[in-house]
Amino acid sequence: MRYRLFGPTGLRVSELFLGTMRFTSVEQALPIVDRYADAGGNMIDTADAYGPSEDILGEVLTGRRDRFVLASKYTLSRDKTDINATGNHRKNFRLALESSLRRLRTDYLDIYWVHYWERHTPIDETLHALDDAVRAGKILYAGISDAPAWIVARGNTLAEWRDWSAFAGLQVPYSLLQRDIERELLPMAESFGMTVAAWAPLAHGKLARPADAAADERERKVVSVLADVAGKLDATPAQVALAWTRARSRAVHPLVGASSPEQLADNLAAIELALPEDAVRRLEAATDFTLGFPHDFITPDLLDPARIEGR
User: What's the DSSP call for residue 178?
Assistant: First the structure.
């Protein structure tokens, strides 16, 4: 396992992040976390909305919590009967954070993610609350998940102006079947020096299943090419799919979930897989993805005088 810095900070995080949404018991989670730690993994991601995951991790990490970069999230409802038990405002932020700390049996989180952008809370209120928690030592770094690029950029610009802790990481879906972040979110994150945690890098398991299980023709085509590339490289389709996300940008860290140590071991092998350029081209051609406007419009020849006069 190799390590990179978490965004524009000095925190070292492993190349693959471990997601814990699938954790259902301590007995299931313990060998998975042990296998991840044995491989050198140190970044564990959870959320207050992931069922019993925080309680399970609190027990699994007892006695070794500080050896991991531990991250959780808030935004989703903690209590369906309370209108203020959801969202990114200060009240929910404070109560959600204190609850997560209790369940995880720790007095601080290394990274605290805003789980979703919601339109009702101004981004400066959320960032100010995060900065207060950083100054209080309850969180060390802030991140944001599932938000538009313009919101993240606005937030980090406000943080720079007001001397607040900015978002150091971005968590978004990214896979061969869902490349949308290449339009705005990934370039924005790279510009701010942010780490990108790519969730669902296997498209919720679709990229690890046979082509005849595909839901449509596009998915079938991608899975077929993926299987062919994997066969030529003596790798599994899952390993190739994970390696592709890492080949696209050094900012990207695949966030892998596993329900068993064996499944995790297969995913971890993707770290050592370097995809040839022709394999990357084949995979990307199969996705039938285009950046769209304005990216396809703003090309080097756009400023050519002949083109301008002829428009």
Answer: B
**Torsion over CA of 133, 46, 79 and 141, rounded to 10 degrees?**
10
Of 24, 35, 33, 116, which is closest to residue 68 (Cα–Cα)?
33
Annotation says 50 is catalytic: yes
State how far the Cα of 73 lies from the Cα of 50, in Å rounded to an integer.
Answer: 9
- Bridge pairing between strands 12-14 and 3-5: antiparallel
CA–CA distance, 35 with 58 (Å, rounded to integer): 17
Please report the domains of the chain, with CATH numbers, ordered by start residue: 3-310 (3.20.20.100)
Q: Which amino acid is at 214?
A: A
Q: What pTM does this model have?
A: 0.94
Q: Give me the phi and psi of 242, to 5 degrees please.
A: -70, -40
Please list the residues that pair with 3 across neighbouring strands.
14
Spatial distance between the Cα atoms of 226 and 237, rounded to a whole number of angstroms: 6
Q: Which helix (H) or strand (E) holds 282?
A: helix 277-287
Catalytic residue among 36, 50, 74, 112: 50
For residue range 177-225, list pLDDT tens digits in order. 999 999 999 999 999 999 999 999 999 999 999 988 888 999 999 999 9
Spatial distance between the Cα atoms of 33 and 18, rounded to a whole number of angstroms: 8
